[in-house]
Amino acid sequence: MKTLIACYSYTGNTMVIAQKINEAIDSDLTRIQPVKDRWYMIKAIHAYLEKKWPIEDCIKDLYEYDCLLLCCPIWAGRAPPGVNQYLEELQNVKGKKLAVMVTMGGNGNEIATRQIKTALEVKGMELIARLKITGNDQKSGAWVAKTEEFCQIFMK
Ligand SMILES: Cc1cc2nc3c(=O)[nH]c(=O)nc-3n(C[C@H](O)[C@H](O)[C@H](O)COP(=O)(O)O)c2cc1C
User: Fold this and answer.
1) pTM for this predicted structure
2) Rounded to 5 degrees, what angle do the CA atoms 47, 35, 122 make?
């Protein structure tokens, strides 16, 4: 299954895990990068309001892929605004598989995962897998085993 990993990471936690997955499954990795940074409170409020921020150029066309693995942190219980924009700009998604990996400080990723799932299911994608890595998983190192198990899905 040819997979594109699209990763947004502000402080680097999500990127560490996305890179580990990328090495394990031999996929391509593209970085979602908002054009402009914002203050912490603006980040949280805009995420909560499900706003979209303009993003830099990256791979947005799934033409040559079977699967998209979207990786991002949780902001205010939601997907970050740069990710919302990426979901809108994605092309050739119909009939493709979707997987989601999120990292967070605490817990509570359900709304964000649903946001991503809903935005892409209406365009014809099918959610096949999800992984959440909590702050505790990151501190204890439990994320390594969870990630290795998750990678099996993409090796078929
Ligand atoms: C603006 C902002 C809002 C956040 N909101 C949440 C939240 O609602 N719940 C949570 O568990 N963590 C929250 N976090 C923590 C991040 O999700 C967590 O540190 C994540 O691993 C960061 O990933 P990154 O290093 O790839 O950016 C927030 C962080 C930021 C910057």
Assistant:
1) 0.98
2) 50
User: For atom 19 of ligand 1, which residue has the closest CA?
Assistant: 105
The total of structural domains in the chain comes to 1
Q: How far is ligand 1, taken at its centre, from the CA of residue 105, in Å?
A: 5
Q: Are 17 and 103 in contact (CB under 8 A)?
A: yes
Query: One digit per residue, pLDDT tens: the chain, 156 residues?
Result: 999 999 999 999 999 999 999 999 989 999 999 999 999 999 999 999 999 999 999 999 999 999 999 999 999 999 999 999 999 999 999 999 999 999 999 988 999 999 999 999 999 999 999 999 999 999 999 999 999 999 999 987
Q: What is the CATH number of the domain that holds 55?
A: 3.40.50.360
Residue 149 · residue 121 · CB < 8 Å: no
Which of 32, 39, 104 for mutating ligand 1's site (highest number of atoms within 8 Å of CB)? 104
